[in-house]
Amino acid sequence: MSTMLEVSGLNHRYGAGEKAHVAVNDLSFTVEAGQLASIVGPSGCGKSTLLRCIAGLIKPSSGRVSLHGDDVSGVPEDLAVVFQDYSRSLFPWLSVAKNVEFPLRWRNLSRSERRTRAQEALESVGLSGVGSKFPWQLSGGMQQRVSIARALASRPALLLMDEPFASVDAQTRFELEDLTRRVQRENGSTVLVVTHDIDESVYLSDRVLVLSKSPATIVADLPVGLPAERNQITTRESTEFVTLRGEVARLLHGGAPENAAAVTAASDAAEWDLARADAEATADADAEARSKH
Ligand SMILES: Nc1ncnc2c1ncn2[C@@H]1O[C@H](COP(=O)(O)OP(=O)(O)OP(=O)(O)O)[C@@H](O)[C@H]1O
Ligand SMILES: [Mg+2]
Predict the structure, then answer these.
(1) Among the four 45, 84, 208, 285, which has the fewest Cβ within 10 Å?
(2) Nearest Cα to 12, choosing from 4, 28, 1, 23?
(3) Count of domains forming the chain
(4) Is residue 249 a part of any domain in this protein?
């Protein structure tokens, strides 16, 4: 396997002087071509900042990002991003087909090639019949499919997704997770997904990168050994899945492995999610602020 993405010694701080905020601190990792990796971490730890640096949307304070060996210094042509908020990322005055075609205008493609690519991308997300509609005539889940189709139409070497399913209902979320896995495998794409949802990180990916609270550093890099064929019911019930989600939850909570029982107990706790890690981070910050007064 060849390396698609290499992030080395990445730091990013917003602002300068006393008010500077370090969002990302010395992050290094690689993603191999054809891999689907997830990133989980507490709210505000720097996940979107990391994705923006990878996408070339912001210049990191220091460190390096390279895509198939080329340094990223602006937005690379062969990279696409799917954002959480589909309602703001699609143009309401353009039809669905025109939205999907839009980024292809800057490619050296004829009009008919652009149309064909958009049509194929819409087909791959199960939306072949809605090209002439406007985004606002579709449900939220369908609009997010359009965003995914738009990203796929440019046939990116790397697809970045920043909490792509956070704004849709649970059933649609499951469908979009399966859709992402299917198109990723069919196209052999390399995908990096940021999610708040521990279960989703395990279900979706080949690998989960767990980040610390702010500034983001890597706490763990866990391989997901689940079979490639996954099922929303049976996979989530499997022992491997339950153990892994417990492990991710425990790492996010900042704990060290004590024994197998502790991991199982963590997996059994239904409320184990990032909200809890966030609440603790907020409590820590409050305590620190109080101690300064
Ligand atoms: N443009 C900006 N200017 C100043 N500070 C920023 C800016 N963007 C983000 N930050 C700060 O950097 C930190 C990391 O933000 P970021 O959006 O990367 O976190 P995140 O992990 O994606 O959070 P969430 O899970 O809530 O989406 C936060 O403290 C945030 O307030
Ligand atoms: Mg974010």
Answers:
(1) 285
(2) 23
(3) 1
(4) yes
Say whether pLDDT at 21 is over 50: yes
Weakest mean pLDDT among 161-165, 266-270, 272-276, 282-286: 266-270
Angle formed at CA 158 by CA 156 and CA 160, multiple of 5 degrees: 110
State the DSSP string of 77-97. Answer: TTEEEE-S-HHHHS-TTS-HH
Q: pLDDT digit string (tens) for 201-217?
A: 999 999 999 998 888 88
Residues bordering ligand 2, an ion, CB closer than 5 Å: 48
Token output for 42? 């507490």
At 37, which CATH number?
A: 3.40.50.300
Considering the entire predicted model, what is its pTM? 0.85
| Number of the ligand 1 atom closest to the C-alpha atom of 52 | 18
Instruction: Give the start-end residues of each E strand in the chain.
Output: 3-14, 21-32, 36-40, 62-67, 70-71, 79-82, 158-162, 190-194, 207-211, 218-223
Cα separation of 250 and 267, whole Å? 9
Span from the CA of 49 to the centroid of ligand 1 (angstroms): 6
Maximum C-alpha span of the chain: 66
Residue 259 within a domain? yes
Nearest CA to ligand 1 atom 3: 14
Residues near 6 by beta carbon (within 8 Å), at least 6 away in sequence: 30, 64, 65, 66
Return the ligand number nearest the Cα of 83: 2
Q: Whose CA is nearest to atom 20 of ligand 1?
A: 44
Task: Map residue 225 onto helix, strand or coil.
Answer: coil
For the cut 50, the answer to whether the pLDDT of residue 258 exceeds it is no
Provide the residue range defining the domain that includes 185. Answer: 3-78+156-292
Q: Are strands 21-32 and 70-71 parallel, antiparallel or unpaired?
A: unpaired
257 neighbors 222 (Cβ within 8 angstroms): no
Assign 269 a pLDDT band (cuts: 50, 70, 90): very low
